[in-house]
Protein backbone atom coordinates (compact mmCIF):
# COMPACT_ATOMS: atom_id res chain seq x y z
CA UNK A 1 0.00 0.00 0.00
CA UNK A 2 2.83 2.43 0.81
CA UNK A 3 4.22 1.93 -2.71
CA UNK A 4 0.86 2.89 -4.25
CA UNK A 5 0.50 5.96 -2.02
CA UNK A 6 4.07 7.05 -2.80
CA UNK A 7 3.36 6.70 -6.52
CA UNK A 8 0.20 8.81 -6.14
CA UNK A 9 2.20 11.49 -4.32
CA UNK A 10 4.68 11.65 -7.21
CA UNK A 11 1.89 11.80 -9.82
CA UNK A 12 0.11 14.60 -7.95
CA UNK A 13 3.37 16.54 -7.57
CA UNK A 14 4.22 16.29 -11.28
CA UNK A 15 0.66 17.09 -12.39
CA UNK A 16 0.49 20.07 -10.04
CA UNK A 17 3.84 21.35 -11.30
CA UNK A 18 2.64 21.05 -14.91
CA UNK A 19 -0.49 23.08 -14.17
CA UNK A 20 1.49 25.63 -12.18
CA UNK A 21 4.05 26.20 -14.95
CA UNK A 22 1.49 26.48 -17.74
CA UNK A 23 -0.89 28.95 -16.08
CA UNK A 24 -0.68 32.55 -17.27
CA UNK A 25 -2.36 34.54 -14.52
CA UNK A 26 -1.09 34.83 -10.97
CA UNK A 27 -4.44 33.82 -9.47
CA UNK A 28 -4.58 30.59 -11.48
CA UNK A 29 -1.03 29.75 -10.40
CA UNK A 30 -1.99 30.21 -6.75
CA UNK A 31 -5.05 28.02 -7.28
CA UNK A 32 -2.85 25.31 -8.81
CA UNK A 33 -0.36 25.56 -5.94
CA UNK A 34 -3.00 25.39 -3.19
CA UNK A 35 -4.88 22.62 -5.01
CA UNK A 36 -1.71 20.54 -5.24
CA UNK A 37 -1.03 20.96 -1.52
CA UNK A 38 -4.61 19.94 -0.69
CA UNK A 39 -4.37 16.88 -2.96
CA UNK A 40 -1.07 15.85 -1.36
CA UNK A 41 -2.52 16.29 2.11
CA UNK A 42 -5.62 14.23 1.31
CA UNK A 43 -3.46 11.48 -0.20
CA UNK A 44 -1.30 11.30 2.93
CA UNK A 45 -4.45 11.29 5.09
CA UNK A 46 -5.96 8.42 3.09
CA UNK A 47 -2.67 6.55 3.32
CA UNK A 48 -2.65 6.98 7.10
CA UNK A 49 -6.22 5.70 7.35
CA UNK A 50 -5.16 2.64 5.34
CA UNK A 51 -2.29 2.03 7.78
CA UNK A 52 0.41 3.02 5.29
CA UNK A 53 3.50 4.29 7.20
CA UNK A 54 3.36 8.07 6.90
CA UNK A 55 7.07 8.43 7.65
CA UNK A 56 7.92 6.27 4.64
CA UNK A 57 5.57 8.25 2.40
CA UNK A 58 7.00 11.60 3.46
CA UNK A 59 10.56 10.31 3.14
CA UNK A 60 9.94 9.14 -0.43
CA UNK A 61 8.24 12.42 -1.36
CA UNK A 62 10.98 14.67 0.03
CA UNK A 63 13.71 12.56 -1.60
CA UNK A 64 11.87 12.81 -4.92
CA UNK A 65 11.47 16.59 -4.61
CA UNK A 66 15.09 17.19 -3.58
CA UNK A 67 16.69 15.06 -6.29
CA UNK A 68 14.19 16.25 -8.88
CA UNK A 69 15.05 19.82 -7.92
CA UNK A 70 18.78 19.24 -8.42
CA UNK A 71 18.11 17.75 -11.85
CA UNK A 72 15.93 20.76 -12.65
CA UNK A 73 18.91 22.98 -11.80
CA UNK A 74 21.14 20.94 -14.12
CA UNK A 75 18.50 21.16 -16.84
CA UNK A 76 18.36 24.94 -16.49
CA UNK A 77 22.14 25.12 -16.86
CA UNK A 78 22.02 23.02 -20.01
CA UNK A 79 19.15 25.11 -21.33
CA UNK A 80 21.35 28.22 -21.21
CA UNK A 81 23.99 26.48 -23.31
CA UNK A 82 21.92 24.42 -25.73
CA UNK A 83 18.43 25.91 -25.54
CA UNK A 84 19.55 29.53 -25.81
CA UNK A 85 22.82 29.39 -27.72
CA UNK A 86 22.98 26.00 -29.43
CA UNK A 87 26.18 24.90 -27.66
CA UNK A 88 26.37 21.11 -27.88
CA UNK A 89 27.66 20.33 -24.40
CA UNK A 90 27.57 16.61 -23.62
CA UNK A 91 29.97 16.89 -20.73
CA UNK A 92 27.43 18.03 -18.12
CA UNK A 93 28.82 15.44 -15.71
CA UNK A 94 32.22 17.15 -15.78
CA UNK A 95 30.95 20.53 -14.58
CA UNK A 96 28.68 18.81 -12.06
CA UNK A 97 31.52 16.70 -10.67
CA UNK A 98 33.89 19.66 -10.36
CA UNK A 99 31.29 21.51 -8.30
CA UNK A 100 30.74 18.49 -6.06
CA UNK A 101 34.43 17.92 -5.34
CA UNK A 102 35.42 21.57 -4.90
CA UNK A 103 32.56 22.24 -2.50
CA UNK A 104 33.40 19.10 -0.52
CA UNK A 105 37.09 19.98 -0.23
CA UNK A 106 36.27 23.51 0.94
CA UNK A 107 33.61 22.51 3.49
CA UNK A 108 34.82 19.13 4.76
CA UNK A 109 36.25 18.95 8.27
CA UNK A 110 39.56 16.98 8.33
CA UNK A 111 38.41 15.29 11.54
CA UNK A 112 35.56 13.61 9.64
CA UNK A 113 38.02 12.02 7.20
CA UNK A 114 40.61 10.95 9.78
CA UNK A 115 37.90 9.63 12.05
CA UNK A 116 36.66 7.37 9.25
CA UNK A 117 39.91 5.38 9.27
CA UNK A 118 41.77 7.39 6.63
CA UNK A 119 44.72 8.46 8.79
CA UNK A 120 47.13 7.84 5.92
CA UNK A 121 45.30 10.27 3.62
CA UNK A 122 47.13 13.58 3.29
CA UNK A 123 44.39 15.46 1.40
CA UNK A 124 43.75 18.96 2.71
CA UNK A 125 40.28 20.12 3.71
CA UNK A 126 39.41 23.61 4.86
CA UNK A 127 36.30 23.32 7.10
CA UNK A 128 34.65 26.43 5.63
CA UNK A 129 30.93 27.33 5.67
CA UNK A 130 28.56 25.79 3.14
CA UNK A 131 28.02 29.11 1.37
CA UNK A 132 31.75 29.36 0.66
CA UNK A 133 31.75 25.82 -0.71
CA UNK A 134 28.76 26.57 -2.95
CA UNK A 135 30.32 29.74 -4.34
CA UNK A 136 33.67 27.99 -4.76
CA UNK A 137 32.01 25.15 -6.67
CA UNK A 138 30.30 27.58 -9.02
CA UNK A 139 33.52 29.52 -9.57
CA UNK A 140 35.56 26.37 -10.25
CA UNK A 141 33.03 25.10 -12.80
CA UNK A 142 33.07 28.49 -14.48
CA UNK A 143 36.88 28.37 -14.73
CA UNK A 144 36.70 24.92 -16.34
CA UNK A 145 34.19 26.34 -18.82
CA UNK A 146 36.62 29.14 -19.70
CA UNK A 147 39.38 26.63 -20.45
CA UNK A 148 37.07 24.51 -22.59
CA UNK A 149 35.61 27.55 -24.32
CA UNK A 150 38.93 29.07 -25.36
CA UNK A 151 39.93 25.75 -26.85
CA UNK A 152 36.75 24.98 -28.78
CA UNK A 153 34.24 27.82 -29.16
CA UNK A 154 35.80 29.17 -32.34
CA UNK A 155 35.09 25.79 -33.90
CA UNK A 156 31.76 24.22 -34.81
CA UNK A 157 29.49 22.37 -32.39
CA UNK A 158 30.91 18.90 -33.07
CA UNK A 159 34.27 19.90 -31.66
CA UNK A 160 32.66 21.35 -28.53
CA UNK A 161 30.86 18.05 -27.97
CA UNK A 162 34.11 16.09 -28.32
CA UNK A 163 35.94 18.50 -26.02
CA UNK A 164 33.32 18.39 -23.29
CA UNK A 165 33.27 14.59 -23.34
CA UNK A 166 37.05 14.55 -23.12
CA UNK A 167 37.20 17.04 -20.27
CA UNK A 168 34.57 15.13 -18.33
CA UNK A 169 36.51 11.87 -18.69
CA UNK A 170 39.80 13.56 -17.78
CA UNK A 171 38.23 14.95 -14.62
CA UNK A 172 36.83 11.51 -13.76
CA UNK A 173 40.29 9.97 -14.13
CA UNK A 174 41.79 12.70 -11.96
CA UNK A 175 39.18 12.04 -9.28
CA UNK A 176 39.95 8.32 -9.48
CA UNK A 177 43.75 8.49 -9.35
CA UNK A 178 44.67 11.65 -7.42
CA UNK A 179 44.21 10.30 -3.90
CA UNK A 180 45.87 13.36 -2.42
CA UNK A 181 43.03 15.49 -3.79
CA UNK A 182 39.96 13.26 -3.88
CA UNK A 183 40.84 10.10 -1.86
CA UNK A 184 40.29 8.14 -5.08
CA UNK A 185 37.70 5.39 -5.38
CA UNK A 186 37.28 5.24 -1.62
CA UNK A 187 35.36 8.49 -1.81
CA UNK A 188 34.84 11.26 0.73
CA UNK A 189 32.41 10.44 3.53
CA UNK A 190 30.68 12.44 6.26
CA UNK A 191 30.36 15.62 4.19
CA UNK A 192 28.89 18.32 6.46
CA UNK A 193 25.41 19.61 5.74
CA UNK A 194 24.52 23.31 6.10
CA UNK A 195 23.45 24.33 9.62
CA UNK A 196 23.00 20.68 10.58
CA UNK A 197 24.63 21.09 13.98
CA UNK A 198 22.74 24.31 14.69
CA UNK A 199 19.27 23.08 13.73
CA UNK A 200 19.10 19.33 14.39
CA UNK A 201 18.38 18.18 17.93
CA UNK A 202 21.29 15.99 19.09
CA UNK A 203 20.38 12.41 19.89
CA UNK A 204 20.27 11.90 23.64
CA UNK A 205 20.51 15.60 24.53
CA UNK A 206 17.51 16.79 26.56
CA UNK A 207 17.25 19.72 26.43
CA UNK A 208 19.56 20.45 23.50
CA UNK A 209 22.27 23.04 24.16
CA UNK A 210 21.89 26.21 22.05
CA UNK A 211 24.12 26.62 19.03
CA UNK A 212 26.29 29.71 18.64
CA UNK A 213 25.76 31.02 15.08
CA UNK A 214 27.65 34.27 14.45
CA UNK A 215 27.22 35.19 18.10
CA UNK A 216 23.50 34.38 18.14
CA UNK A 217 22.28 31.57 20.37
CA UNK A 218 19.96 29.32 18.36
CA UNK A 219 18.26 26.34 20.05
CA UNK A 220 18.03 23.21 17.95
CA UNK A 221 14.42 22.55 16.99
CA UNK A 222 14.48 20.16 13.99
CA UNK A 223 14.53 16.41 14.46
CA UNK A 224 16.99 14.36 12.45
CA UNK A 225 14.14 12.80 10.44
CA UNK A 226 12.84 16.22 9.35
CA UNK A 227 16.12 17.87 8.38
CA UNK A 228 15.58 16.79 4.77
CA UNK A 229 12.65 19.22 4.55
CA UNK A 230 14.97 22.06 5.52
CA UNK A 231 17.46 20.93 2.89
CA UNK A 232 14.65 20.82 0.34
CA UNK A 233 14.09 24.53 1.05
CA UNK A 234 17.75 25.14 0.13
CA UNK A 235 17.32 23.22 -3.12
CA UNK A 236 14.08 25.06 -3.87
CA UNK A 237 15.68 28.43 -3.10
CA UNK A 238 18.61 27.81 -5.46
CA UNK A 239 16.20 26.55 -8.14
CA UNK A 240 13.96 29.62 -7.84
CA UNK A 241 16.90 32.03 -7.95
CA UNK A 242 18.32 30.32 -11.05
CA UNK A 243 14.90 30.22 -12.74
CA UNK A 244 14.02 33.86 -12.05
CA UNK A 245 17.47 35.06 -13.10
CA UNK A 246 17.38 33.09 -16.36
CA UNK A 247 13.82 34.23 -17.09
CA UNK A 248 14.97 37.82 -16.68
CA UNK A 249 18.05 37.56 -18.83
CA UNK A 250 16.31 35.48 -21.51
CA UNK A 251 14.14 38.51 -22.24
CA UNK A 252 17.08 40.91 -22.17
CA UNK A 253 19.18 41.98 -25.17
CA UNK A 254 21.75 39.40 -24.05
CA UNK A 255 19.20 36.60 -24.27
CA UNK A 256 18.01 37.76 -27.69
CA UNK A 257 21.61 37.83 -28.92
CA UNK A 258 22.09 34.23 -27.78
CA UNK A 259 19.01 33.14 -29.70
CA UNK A 260 20.22 34.98 -32.78
CA UNK A 261 23.51 33.07 -32.59
CA UNK A 262 21.63 29.81 -32.18
CA UNK A 263 19.46 30.46 -35.24
CA UNK A 264 22.18 31.82 -37.54
CA UNK A 265 25.63 32.55 -36.22
CA UNK A 266 26.86 33.97 -39.51
CA UNK A 267 24.00 36.46 -39.64
CA UNK A 268 24.65 37.52 -36.03
CA UNK A 269 28.32 37.97 -36.85
CA UNK A 270 27.44 40.06 -39.90
CA UNK A 271 25.32 42.31 -37.68
CA UNK A 272 28.36 43.10 -35.55
CA UNK A 273 27.81 40.71 -32.66
CA UNK A 274 30.89 39.22 -31.04
CA UNK A 275 29.63 35.66 -31.24
CA UNK A 276 32.66 34.17 -29.48
CA UNK A 277 32.16 36.37 -26.45
CA UNK A 278 28.44 35.59 -26.23
CA UNK A 279 29.03 31.85 -26.57
CA UNK A 280 31.74 31.99 -23.92
CA UNK A 281 29.40 33.82 -21.55
CA UNK A 282 26.64 31.28 -22.19
CA UNK A 283 28.98 28.35 -21.56
CA UNK A 284 30.22 29.91 -18.31
CA UNK A 285 26.74 30.74 -17.00
CA UNK A 286 25.50 27.23 -17.69
CA UNK A 287 28.59 25.67 -16.09
CA UNK A 288 28.22 27.83 -12.98
CA UNK A 289 24.66 26.59 -12.51
CA UNK A 290 25.79 22.98 -13.03
CA UNK A 291 28.58 23.43 -10.48
CA UNK A 292 26.06 24.73 -7.96
CA UNK A 293 23.95 21.63 -8.51
CA UNK A 294 27.01 19.45 -7.86
CA UNK A 295 27.66 21.23 -4.57
CA UNK A 296 24.06 20.79 -3.44
CA UNK A 297 24.01 17.07 -4.26
CA UNK A 298 27.34 16.41 -2.54
CA UNK A 299 26.10 17.88 0.75
CA UNK A 300 22.72 16.23 0.32
CA UNK A 301 24.02 12.66 0.09
CA UNK A 302 27.07 13.37 2.33
CA UNK A 303 29.31 11.21 0.16
CA UNK A 304 31.01 11.55 -3.22
CA UNK A 305 33.32 9.39 -5.29
CA UNK A 306 34.27 9.38 -9.01
CA UNK A 307 30.81 8.04 -9.87
CA UNK A 308 29.54 11.65 -9.75
CA UNK A 309 30.99 11.90 -13.27
CA UNK A 310 28.64 9.14 -14.45
CA UNK A 311 27.59 10.17 -18.01
CA UNK A 312 24.34 8.21 -17.86
CA UNK A 313 22.74 10.02 -14.93
CA UNK A 314 24.57 13.35 -15.15
CA UNK A 315 24.59 13.91 -18.92
CA UNK A 316 22.27 11.61 -20.87
CA UNK A 317 19.40 11.88 -18.39
CA UNK A 318 19.71 15.67 -18.20
CA UNK A 319 19.58 15.91 -22.00
CA UNK A 320 16.45 13.77 -22.03
CA UNK A 321 14.87 15.99 -19.39
CA UNK A 322 15.52 19.13 -21.39
CA UNK A 323 14.31 17.67 -24.70
CA UNK A 324 11.15 16.26 -23.14
CA UNK A 325 10.34 19.43 -21.21
CA UNK A 326 11.05 21.90 -23.98
CA UNK A 327 14.34 23.21 -25.31
CA UNK A 328 14.72 26.96 -24.93
CA UNK A 329 12.02 27.22 -22.25
CA UNK A 330 13.02 27.43 -18.59
CA UNK A 331 9.61 26.22 -17.45
CA UNK A 332 9.90 23.26 -19.77
CA UNK A 333 13.38 22.48 -18.45
CA UNK A 334 12.04 22.30 -14.89
CA UNK A 335 8.96 20.28 -15.79
CA UNK A 336 10.92 17.84 -17.94
CA UNK A 337 13.37 17.28 -15.09
CA UNK A 338 10.66 16.38 -12.58
CA UNK A 339 8.72 14.29 -15.09
CA UNK A 340 11.66 12.16 -16.19
CA UNK A 341 12.96 11.87 -12.64
CA UNK A 342 9.51 10.61 -11.67
CA UNK A 343 9.85 7.85 -14.27
CA UNK A 344 13.43 7.12 -13.22
CA UNK A 345 12.74 7.04 -9.48
CA UNK A 346 9.38 5.27 -9.46
CA UNK A 347 10.78 2.39 -11.50
CA UNK A 348 12.79 1.53 -8.39
CA UNK A 349 9.47 0.40 -6.90
CA UNK A 350 9.40 -2.40 -9.47
CA UNK A 351 11.67 -4.35 -7.14
CA UNK A 352 8.75 -4.55 -4.71
CA UNK A 353 6.28 -5.67 -7.41
CA UNK A 354 8.21 -7.99 -9.70
CA UNK A 355 9.24 -11.47 -8.50
CA UNK A 356 12.89 -11.79 -7.42
CA UNK A 357 13.61 -14.30 -10.20
CA UNK A 358 12.01 -15.30 -13.49
CA UNK A 359 12.26 -18.67 -15.19
CA UNK A 360 12.61 -18.32 -18.98
CA UNK A 361 13.53 -20.72 -21.81
CA UNK A 362 16.98 -19.10 -21.70
CA UNK A 363 17.39 -19.81 -18.00
CA UNK A 364 16.79 -18.11 -14.68
CA UNK A 365 16.89 -14.29 -14.66
CA UNK A 366 17.77 -12.32 -11.54
CA UNK A 367 15.27 -9.47 -11.82
CA UNK A 368 17.12 -7.03 -9.54
CA UNK A 369 20.49 -7.27 -11.30
CA UNK A 370 19.60 -8.31 -14.87
CA UNK A 371 16.14 -6.95 -15.63
CA UNK A 372 15.62 -3.88 -13.46
CA UNK A 373 18.26 -1.71 -15.18
CA UNK A 374 17.10 -2.38 -18.76
CA UNK A 375 13.45 -1.73 -17.80
CA UNK A 376 14.40 1.67 -16.39
CA UNK A 377 16.38 2.66 -19.50
CA UNK A 378 13.61 1.38 -21.78
CA UNK A 379 11.04 3.50 -19.93
CA UNK A 380 13.18 6.62 -20.39
CA UNK A 381 13.86 5.90 -24.06
CA UNK A 382 10.20 5.15 -24.84
CA UNK A 383 9.13 8.41 -23.19
CA UNK A 384 11.74 10.30 -25.20
CA UNK A 385 10.67 8.70 -28.49
CA UNK A 386 7.00 9.47 -27.87
CA UNK A 387 7.79 13.12 -27.18
CA UNK A 388 10.01 13.41 -30.26
CA UNK A 389 7.26 11.94 -32.45
CA UNK A 390 4.28 13.89 -31.15
CA UNK A 391 5.76 16.97 -29.44
CA UNK A 392 9.16 17.58 -31.09
CA UNK A 393 9.43 21.00 -29.44
CA UNK A 394 8.83 19.51 -25.99
CA UNK A 395 5.86 19.42 -23.65
CA UNK A 396 6.21 23.13 -22.90
CA UNK A 397 7.50 24.61 -26.16
CA UNK A 398 9.70 27.67 -26.38
CA UNK A 399 7.80 30.92 -26.21
CA UNK A 400 8.07 33.45 -28.99
CA UNK A 401 9.87 36.63 -28.00
CA UNK A 402 9.05 39.71 -30.01
CA UNK A 403 10.14 43.28 -29.57
CA UNK A 404 7.73 45.66 -27.84
CA UNK A 405 8.41 48.10 -30.71
CA UNK A 406 6.55 45.84 -33.15
CA UNK A 407 2.98 46.90 -33.78
CA UNK A 408 0.76 43.86 -33.36
Structural commentary:
The structure is a single chain. The protein is mainly alpha-helical and 408 residues long. The protein folds into two domains: 1-52; 54-322, no CATH class. 68% of the residues lie in helices and 3% in strands. It contains 17 helices and four strands. The strands form two sheets. Strands 1-2 form a two-stranded antiparallel ribbon. It has a two-stranded antiparallel sheet with strand order 3-4. The radius of gyration is 23 Å and the shape is globular. The N and C termini lie far apart (55 Å).
Lateral arrangement of strands in the main beta sheet: 1-2
Structural class, by secondary structure, is: mainly alpha
Number of continuous helical runs:
17
The figure for the number of domains is 2
- Oligomer state equals single chain
* Head-to-tail CA distance between termini: 55 Å
Amino acid sequence: MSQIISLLLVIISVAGLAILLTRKSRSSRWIAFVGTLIALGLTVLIGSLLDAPSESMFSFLVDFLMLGGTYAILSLGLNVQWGYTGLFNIGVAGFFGVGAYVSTILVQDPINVVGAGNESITVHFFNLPFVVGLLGAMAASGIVAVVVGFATLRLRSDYLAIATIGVSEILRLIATNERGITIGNRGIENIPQPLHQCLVIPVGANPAPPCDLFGIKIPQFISLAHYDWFYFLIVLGFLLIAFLALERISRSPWGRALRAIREDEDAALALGKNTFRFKMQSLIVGAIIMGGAGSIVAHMVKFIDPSVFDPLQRTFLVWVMLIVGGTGNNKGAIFGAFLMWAIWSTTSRLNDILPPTLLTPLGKIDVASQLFGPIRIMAIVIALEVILLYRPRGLIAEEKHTSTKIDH
